[in-house]
Structure formats: structure tokens, C-alpha cells
Amino acid sequence: MMKKLCVLVCIWITAVAIVSGQEKVLTQGMTISTSCQIKKATYPLFIASKASFLDSINRWDSAQPVITITGENLVIDFQHAELQGAVNQTLPDQFRGVAIKVRGKNITIKNLRVKSYKIAVWAFDSDSIRLENCDFSYNYRPRLHSTREREDFSDWLSYHQNEHNEWLRYGTGIYLENCRKAVIKACKIMGNQNALLMNRCTDALIYNNTFQFNSGLGIGMYRSSRNRIMHNRLDWNVRGYSHGIYQRGQDSAAILVYEQSNENIFAYNSCTHSGDGFFLWAGQSTMDSGEGGSNDNLLFGNDFSHAPTNGVEVTFSRNTIRGNLIRECTHGIWGGYSYETLIMGNYISDCKTGVAIEHGQKNTIQQNLFEDDSTGINFWARAEQPTDWGYAQKRDTRSRDGLIDRNVFLSTRKPLKMSGSQNMVVNGVNLFFDFDKIIEMPKPNEGFRFLRNEIYGTAAEIAAVWQQPELKGSEKINFSYPKNPENPYSPLEIPVVELQEPDSLKDGIVAALPQGFPRGRSWIMMEDWGPYDFRRPIAHRKEILQDKGDALPLYIYTLFMPPGKWRILNAQGIGFISDTSGTYPIELSVSPQKPMPDQFNIEFEFIGAGITYSPLGVAIPAGEPQRFSLQEFFPDLKWDVAFFNYAPTQKIPSKSVFEGSPIAQKQTKDLYFAWWDKPAEGVDPDHFATLATASFEISAGDYLLELSSDDGVILYLDGKKLIDHWNIHEPETDQVTVRLGGKHQIRIEHFEGGGFSTLDFRIRPAK
Questions:
Q1: Distance between CA atoms of 478 and 391, rounded to whole angstroms?
Q2: 699, 726 in Cβ contact below 8 A?
Q3: What is the largest distance, in Å, between two alpha-carbon atoms of the chain?
Q4: Pairing relation of β-strands 439-440 and 414-418?
Q5: The dihedral of CA 615, 621, 622, 626: what is its sign?
Q6: Does residue 628 register a pLDDT over 70?
Q7: Using an 8 Å Cβ cutoff, are 512 and 270 in contact?
Q8: In sequence order, what are the residues at sequence separation of 6 or more whose Cβ sits closer than 8 angstroms to the Cβ of residue 177?
Q9: Is the dihedral angle over the CA atoms 238, 241, 244, 247 positive or is it negative?
Q10: Is the model's pLDDT at 3 over the cut of 60?
Q11: CA-to-CA distance for 474 and 756, rounded, in angstroms?
């Protein structure tokens, strides 16, 4: 009764405001504590306090916002008013500050637009917060350093810790902290790094939202339980992908679930073309103690297709994955160290491995359809466990007691693969069609059994039949049963169960990609700031054709764009181009002039038949010209690289390390190294220094120097120190813009202080 009364009071207050025509005008630093309507306008507001400029704000009470909303039983209708921060800055990695902070109870915010901030809305310690029909697109996102040719390790994300709101360093559209029963409905967030982040939130309903084309996460959850994530469009939340070259994902995901997040429902979402469709991890506390996990979450009726890495990753935990569509992923489902997990009724196709589980226990793979996968199901264990995992020291980590029950394998080259596993059972009528080898099992004495199948017997008996070369694959399936078998037609021990799907929401949308919308990993096209969103023209390099003779390379581009016309305005350094104008779709062939220049550039003009958008989300009316370009740069650098050892007692080596004789040397045209071990024979893998020098000649102009490192690095240009990052750090990228022309010398000093190491130098014209 009291709840109904509160709702009626809110409606009455809003009605009074509408009738009286009262509209508030937003001002910098204002606090809203009553229900109201906001005058529709664009508000360029930004508080230039020290806190608002921090890259990592991790306390709600220390962040100074543009607007504060506080109180109880409020309805604030922004009527599509827009807050704009960083008005005079155009680069998304320069966006700072918090637009709106919210704290209270039963607060509804609707029809709000926020762009160009680090954080659009931050709600803290609140009950029943509701955000509806809001747009928080084009807020903070960093420049990506990975290119079409190669991955940059500084682009990897790390969401492992959020005990002190560390996730805020990545920015987000919505940040919910310690909120209960929140409702996020029909909101739109694209062109950010993250859309929605939830820290210690319970019993929320997140539905009918469009969180697409972000470079990090669609939805991220940390210590958040009993939430419902349903009917959302969460596609193209991705980084770390170059079609046909590398497929890393770099821990981007449509949905991320971390650290003791339990009993959540994820249903009827479209999570395609993301680094992982769904990424669940038990949490650092579980890894240290062996206790807990992110358990009893339900994944039902989602589309997790076209992930560069895993359609679904669930690790160190117990969960249920039922009735999902998972196509064209490296792994359909990765379940490392999962236990008592049910994988049932999913369609998993065109994956390198359908279901891959290392060190899993008591997992059930039941009634799934596998089609066109290289490997259907793979259970395995490694010989040793990491010594620094508390989990491995305190838990039984054997691969054991798995059940494969009544699945169908169509055109799957290797349906089953087992190694290092104990007491694994294939039960019921698992159907195998069009296989090369039904099972790969190096050790047939590990307790693997087929029960009531087209194949029947112990591992040793089955292995003996496979060793008969005169039998074809189909004949090997139908061999005689061993003596005195159980009746293969007796009732199955495991009953057939329904999928038990959760009810869809009455006003839930169909979140699937629209008919005719592009599907497939080839449609993941990464740019400097994130994935391409199909709302504007781009020239995407498809391939480079290199003749074996002395002919110059031929560059093949695909021009992607909405309906409209394009033409070339000017070109520099071009010897041949296949077309100079046209409509989409088209492939453009380009060859540089002779002699080979150090770069070529093409500037295009596009006139759209409808509304298009700039990279920052600015609408461009139909018929208004829009420019875009492509550029290739061919720096002629020859690097001399030398490696030195330093004493393990030195945490950070002194510069004298470069005064001795090198342990190893090499020459390379491309300074791009990633070392998981020693870089050369005789070099200490955890205590070495690298000296790289190069002389080069270049056309006059402004250039961006980018240097990614792990660990310390210093860069000198013509004897002048430009980058100094001489300490222990994870992969990071430093950059500096310089004016060059003629002959120059570069010297790069680097050291590795343990673990993974990388050194990657890039130079390109400054845009």
C-alpha cells in the first residue's frame, strides 16, 4: 500500500509541474531535490575542479559533478536536454569529469542526454533508481594502439580489481555503486569504452537497452547478485581484433561478470561481435582462498555469436548455460575449472572448439547441437598447477566426473577429445555424423566409458576397434557389444528435462540483430577509437597483394558507408587507383607511385542519402558533404638491437648496464617484440635490458611517436630525451608529437623486471 502511495505522490508532483509550465534551466554545480521538468536545450557545462580532471576518481564523495540529484520519490524529466562536457576538446581520451551524481530513493530520471564526460551518471547507495530513455553515448574512450597489422599489448584491459572503484579509470556511461532494485530501461550508450558498470548492486532489472559499438564492455558486474539482464542489444563491444590477422579480444565483452556475482539471470540478449559474448570469472578472492565463486547464474536464450575469443567464458564457478546461440567463435564455451555446470540445449556451430573445459569437475554437456566445429567437446588437464594460485593449492583440480549426454554432432571433424581426465561418461544416444575421428583419447585407461550409445564399451575396447585399419568410420561405430552388456535400450538413467526458460518480460523487445544486418567476424572493423558502427563512410584495408617481382604492392580497400555517393577530392603519392567516384559497395585498388614514397594519402568526399554521423556522434544531414580519408605510411627504419643482463638483486637497473658487451644482438626493420621468455640464448628472461638504435630519413612534417613497453623505457630523438618511463609497469603506451624532416637518430633503452615483456615502437604522421 505504501509503495502505491509513493508512486501516486510522484505522479501528482510531476503533473503539477507540467500544468504550471515550470521548467528548470540547468546551471553548473546545481542540486536538484524536487520533481521537475528540465528545459530542453544544450548545456555546455563542465566543472574544472582538480577532482573532475582525475583519470581515476574512486570515491563518490570526492567527485565534483556538474549536477547533483538527491532526495526521495522524485521524477526528473530532462525532455531530451543535453549536457556537454569538454566542449572545446575533440579527442575522447581527453574527456573528464562527472556529469550527474545521484543518491536517494525512488528517483526516476528520463529523457536525458549526456556526452563528452568521463562518467555520465554515477548513482551511489540508492534504492529503486530508474533511468529510462536516456542517451549517454560518446563519452570517454581511449585511443587504441593496436593496428590492422599487429596487436599492441597496452590495449589489454584489466577488470580484476574493483574494491575501490578502480573500474572508473576506464570511464562509463552509467556507474551504479551499492544500488538496490535499480531499473535501467530503453537507454542508449554507444561510442564509449564502457556502457554500464555495476558495483555491489542487487535485484536490478536491466532491459530493452542498446549498448553497442563500445571499445570495452556493454555491461560489467562486480559483486552484484540477483539481477536480471534481459532483452538488451549488446553487440560490437570489442577491441583487439583484426580479421584474418589476430583475434584477441583483449578482455572486452558484451557482458562481464566478476568477483562473487551470483544468481543473476541473463536472458534474450544479443551479445554478438564482442571480445567475449559473456565473460564470467570467480574473482581474485576465490583465486586466493579457493572459496566462493560467481555461482548459480543462468544464461538463457542469448546470441553469443561472432566473438573473436569465447562466445561464453565461465571459470572457477558453477552456472547454467541453456538454449543459447553460439556461432563462429574461437571457443563456443570455455569452462576452465568450472564445476557442476550444466551446458544444455545450445546450438554451437562453426567454432574451433564447441565446449572446452580444463580441470573441470562434475560438468554436464547435455542435448546440445554441434555443427561444423573443428572439435566438439574437449576435456583435459595440465600436468602442473600454477604455484601462485591459492585455488590450485586448496581445491581438487583434477579433470573428472564429466557427463556427455544425448548431444548431436553434425559435420564436426572431431566430436570428442579427452586427455588427463577421469571417470568421464558418454551416456544416451549421442549422434555422430560426418566425422574423421570420433574421439581422440591418448590414454585409454583413464576411466572413460560409453553407455547406451551407437558406441558401447570401455576406453580400451574402443581403442582396440579403432586400431583396425580396414574398418571405415561408419563401420567402427557399429561394432559388437562386449560380453554380457547392459541392455542398450533400457530407460536412461538421466531423465529428459525441459529447458525451463525464464519468462520473457511483457514489454521486452526482440533484441536480435535486424534481418539483413551484417553478421560475421569479418564485420568487426576496428578504428583508432573503437569498432566501426556502420553510420558513416570509412575505407577499410582488406589486404595487400605483393608481386614476387619488382612491382609495387597493390592495396585493396573496401569502402563501407550508408547509402550515398563518394568521390576522391585529392590524392598524394598514388601511382594507380581503380576508381575515383561511385556508390557503395565497392572495392578500391591502390598502388603507390614509383619510386616508392614514404606515404600516400587519399581524401574522399561522401554525400549521404540520409542522416550520417561523425566519429563523435554529430548528426550530418542528408546532402551535406562529409570527408573521410585513408593513409598508408612506410617508414624506412633499420634497427640494431642489443641485449644485456643485469643482476637480479637490482630491482631497476642503472644505465651502466648498457656499457658492457651485449649477450646477444640482432637487426630488424620493425621494432615489435613480445617476450614471455628470454629474447635470445644466454639472456636472463626476467632481468635483461634492451638497447635499440636506428638512423632514418623522412619527409618534413609532424609525426606521432608511440612507444609501448613493459617494463621500463626511455626514448631519445637526436640525443634529446622525449619519453622517460623507467619503472616497473604493465604494458603501457607513451606518445609524443614531433616535427621531423631529413635525417634523424633514435635511441631506445628498455629493461624487463620479470614476467611478460614487450617493446613496440611506431611512427606515423600526426593527424
A1: 43
A2: no
A3: 91
A4: parallel
A5: negative
A6: yes
A7: yes
A8: 60, 122, 123, 124, 125, 165, 199, 200, 201
A9: negative
A10: no
A11: 48
Q: Which residue has the cell 617484440?
A: 673
CA–CA separation, 61 and 420 (whole Å): 52
Coil, helix or strand for 376? strand
Beta-strand relationship, 399-400 and 421-422: parallel
* Range scoring the smallest mean pLDDT among 39-48, 476-485, 508-517, 603-612: 476-485
Report the SS3 class of residue 19.
Answer: helix
Report the candidate in 61, 1, 66, 4 with the shortest Cα–Cα distance to residue 29.
66
Rounded Cα distance between 599 and 88, Å, is 31
Question: Can the peptide bond before residue 585 be classed as cis, meaning omega within 30 degrees of 0?
Answer: yes
pLDDT at 315: 96
DSSP code string of 130-173? EEES-B--S---PPP---SS---GGG----S--TT-GGGGG-EE
Cα separation, 720 vs 713, whole angstroms: 14
The stretch 43-48 carries a mean pLDDT of 83
Residue type, 128: S
| Pairwise CA distance, residues 221 & 656, whole Å | 47
Q: Are 671 and 706 in contact (CB under 8 A)?
A: no
CA end-to-end span of the chain: 62
The pLDDT score that the predictor gives to residue 86 is: 79
DSSP 705-726: EEEEEES-EEEEETTEEEEEE-
Angle at 91 between CA 672 and CA 141, to 5 degrees: 70
Residue 92 DSSP code: G
Q: Are strands 31-32 and 42-44 parallel, antiparallel or unpaired?
A: unpaired
Residue 722 scores a pLDDT above 50: yes
Distance (Å) of CA 445 to CA 420, 424, 428, 430, 449? 10, 11, 21, 22, 10
Q: Over the Cα atoms of the chain, what is R_g? A: 29
**Phi, psi of 589, rounded to the nearest 5 degrees:** -105, 130
Q: Contact at 8 Å (CB) between 260 and 240?
A: no
Q: Is the dihedral of CA 710, 358, 160, 762 positive or negative?
A: positive
Judge whether 255 and 278 are in contact, CB under 8 Å.
yes
Confidence of residue 77 (pLDDT cuts 50, 70, 90): very high
Task: Say yes or no to pLDDT of 477 above 50.
Answer: no
Cα(743)–Cα(695) distance, integer angstroms = 7
C-alpha pair distances (Å), 268 with each of 12, 206, 505, 558: 35, 12, 10, 33
pTM over 0.85: yes
Q: How far apart are CA 552 and CA 635, in angstroms?
A: 16
Residue 119 in grid coordinates:
562518467
Run of H or E including 604: strand 599-608
Nearest to 359 by CA among 388, 322, 334: 334
Q: What's the one-letter identity of residue 150?
A: R
Strand pairing of 364-366 and 342-344?
A: parallel
% the chain with pLDDT above 90: 71
Look at the chain and count its residues.
Answer: 767
Three cell numbers at 764? 606515423
Q: How far is CA 327 from CA 351, 407, 449, in A?
A: 6, 17, 29
Q: Cell 626493420 belongs to which residue?
A: 669
CB 325 within 8 A of CB 370: no
Would you state the cell numbers that stand for residue 637, as one nine-digit string?
627504419
Instruction: Give the C-alpha separation, 347 to 335, whole Å.
Output: 16
